[in-house]
Design brief:
Helix content: 25-40%
CATH class: Mainly Beta
Distance between the termini: 29 Å
Strand order of the largest sheet: 4-3-9-8-7-6-5
CATH topology: FAS1 domain
CATH superfamily: FAS1 domain
CATH architecture: Roll
Number of strands: 9
Order of helices and strands: HHEEHHHEHHHEHEEEEE
Oligomer: single chain
Amino acid sequence: MITTTLSFVLATLTTAGPQDAMMSPKNPMVGGAPMMEMKNIVENAVNSPDHTTLVAAVKAAGLVDALMGKGPFTVFAPTNAAFSMLPAGTVDKLLMDDMKPTLTKILTYHVVPGTMTYDSISKAIKKGNGSAKLKTLSGGWLWASWNGPRNIVLKDEMGGWANISTYDVMQKNGVIHVIDRVLMPK
């Protein structure tokens, strides 16, 4: 059930394109569900059929209360499709009780303190001469850079890359950017 719920949430986030959030900053659609600016990150994520796997993982890691907190947080939210690209059995293994520390590290690696919008990430990339180093809640680093004139990509500590497909989904306690890969810390 957790995997099914998380798959639903992740699928929602992947179906919306980057233009969706930029064209409609208030209540953009993610996975066919409106994301309400007056709700927090968790309240919106549970409504996204593209992010069910992510929601299940957040629940299994015990991070629901933290992500419902004041924040602000910037969440790079992998879709269900992103989780499905992991090796077979990885998600089910990560959702097991004895894997909670590893799951927590992976999930908090997708969160940056503060509200990093498309504009603020772009400014950081420009200031960094083409790359911005972002410190995550897990203590690790992500690197943001441009892939074309408007698309921002993220590089993780393992050398993997994720595209941001939907930008600036504003929340009561931060912002969500939908990504197409699961980011991996060292």
